């Protein structure tokens, strides 16, 4: 792509070359970059609004094959300066306020993920040669693309660390339960630490080295006291606490077998709990289990990595996600009357995945609810 500098000079440009100064970067798909950015946004110092602005700016890049409409990776041959107006960008950012947009842009520039390419009048506009855009004044995405590899690697490291922490936490909870079974053998100081270990393991900011340190200390207590894993749980005064602290084999809303006392002979009889009926009120169909719904919504899982434990948690996530994709409370209330909660969650996930092409998310959601559309046929809908 050829850079025309004469037009820039004639316009009184503050930067002699307004085309992106391509310092090479590996081609990357927008969705891969955005997925990584959402994962590590807290570590970088980005808010949900900052990520939304980045997603909106990336949506202006011509990353669709003209024939197959397949997603193409962004490479150094692209003209990476976005010259769209604030009003246009706000429209793609779910009708964000222009003042809020300017604040997010300033923060992205300060963090080095964005660069301004200003003309003499600080206006954004393209520079054309032979009828084609060859350069522009506006917001340059080059710093973001140059940092793409580091961002993706950072997200991968975070995922590996989270996976390691989950494993270490499970080991620590199991060892803690074994220690509580022999609570009568522990000193008051050790017992206090073992009791508080569960609170420590609940911290969302917990690091790998902190979990390892806690686990090693619990192992030392176990070795010193020679705690037997076969002690009768009923003998421990912490029986209820032990059962609550042991890591479950599955999420709380999985079907499990429970011990129920029968009416005959005072014997305990294990019975299989009847299949739970769905608490969501929907149009003549039963919603899948919460776990299946959660696993299907990839975009929402990335934004809210902690799975919901009950329907109230899921309702809170639906409300937060609706606000994120630009759906107000009134619109959400209207659609909740027509959608099951799980189906509404899938619908919001679909809107988040296709935010670049859905210009009016509220109208889109109302249209989905009004026609009883299912997410399985969403690809065949005509965008509003």
Describe it.
- By secondary structure, this protein is an alpha+beta fold.
- It folds into three domains: 6-146, Orthogonal Bundle (Arc Repressor Mutant, subunit A); 155-247, no CATH class; 290-380, no CATH class.
- It is built from 17 helices and six strands.
- The longest helix has 34 residues, at 148-181.
- Mean pLDDT is 75; it is low at 1-21, 227-238, 247-264, 278-288 and 374-384.
| Count of domains | 3
The number of E-state strands comes to 6
Q: Round the Cα radius of gyration to an integer and report it.
A: 27 Å
Measured distance between first and last alpha carbons: 35 Å
Architecture (CATH level 2) name of the largest domain:
Orthogonal Bundle
According to CATH, the homologous superfamily of the largest domain is: Winged helix-like DNA-binding domain superfamily/Winged helix DNA-binding domain
Oligomer: single chain
Q: Low-confidence spans: pLDDT under 50, at least 5 residues? A: 1-21, 227-238, 247-264, 278-288, 374-384
Sheet with the most strands?
Answer: 4 strands, antiparallel
Overall SS class:
alpha+beta
How helical, in percent, are the residues? 40-55%
Q: SSE order, as H and E?
A: HHHHEHHEEEHHHHHEEHHHHHH
Shape: globular
Q: Whole-number average pLDDT?
A: 75
Fill in the CATH topology of the largest domain.
Arc Repressor Mutant, subunit A
Note the total helix count: 17
